[in-house]
Amino acid sequence: MATRLANRASSSNQTLNFLRYSFKLLRNFSTSSNSTSAQTPPSTNTLSKKSKRRKKKNLFEVAQFLPNWGLGYHLAKAHWTSVSYEITKINLYKDGRHGKAWGITYKDGLPAAEAPKKISGVHKRCWKYLPGLKKSNQNLVHSPSPTTTTETAAHGEVQAA
């Protein structure tokens, strides 16, 4: 009886070994054919990595790279044509990516309003910096004030007398 069990075990081992060997051959053939085709997909993978879109930025993510958080600079939504805001005030929340902003509306490069107003849609991801429009330099414009001209004129009269 023991010999019969030993014979059965050996015959079943032979069958298992044969099946393992045949599956091993199939696996080798399938991987060798896939290895040639596997060399081409990495190029398609690199194309898919390159085609990833760049995440658009909200107003605060654009303004953080400008000097003084973009105060005095012109920002606009990407789909706006000839309309922009000159940033006059920014109120940031603690995270630095959210908050409130105020600015003067510009249309075709000219101010459309005198007073700044609260900018709506500052958290939408479509803002861009407009480098073509210059920062308003109100401090650089020196117009003679009436007090200085009268003081100098009065000073001249005192010297003449």
Automatic annotation (TrEMBL):
Q: Where is the composition biased (Polar residues)?
A: 31-43
Q: Name a GO CC annotation attached to this entry.
A: mitochondrion
Bias kind Low complexity: ranges: 141-161
In alphabetical order, the GO MF annotations are: structural constituent of ribosome
For the region Disordered, what residue ranges are annotated? Answer: 31-55, 138-161
Where does the record place a coiled coil?
A: none
Give the protein name, as stated in the record: Mitochondrial 28S ribosomal protein S34
* Upper taxonomic lineage: Eukaryota, Viridiplantae, Streptophyta, Embryophyta, Tracheophyta
